[in-house]
From TrEMBL:
Listed name of the protein: Large ribosomal subunit protein bL28
GO-annotated molecular function: structural constituent of ribosome
InterPro entries registered for this protein in UniProt: Bacterial_rp_bL28 (IPR050096), Ribosomal_bL28 (IPR026569), Ribosomal_bL28/bL31-like_sf (IPR034704), Ribosomal_bL28_bact-type (IPR001383), Ribosomal_bL28_sf (IPR037147)
HAMAP family noted in UniProt: Ribosomal_bL28
Length: 61
């Protein structure tokens, strides 16, 4: 999976616990999009999570 280029948010792992308390592996994937971003030396395509896009940490090209 891809990581956010701004906040380094990626995949998280843990346990999914059922009603009978049996545990199985679970993976949470962050909402990462490939977007074109304005940088100092032109436009660049990078992976950015949607929370960074909404908060205005990144300016789209």
């Amino acid at each position: 999976m891809a990581k956010c280029a701004i906040c380094e948010k990626g995949v998280y792992f843990g346990n999914s616990v059922s009603h009978s308390h049996r545990r199985s592996n679970k993976m949470w994937k962050s909402n990462v999009k490939s977007v074109r971003v304005k940088t100092e030396n032109g436009n660049k395509r990078m992976y950015v999570c949607t929370s960074c896009l909404r908060s205005g940490k990144v300016e789209r090209a």
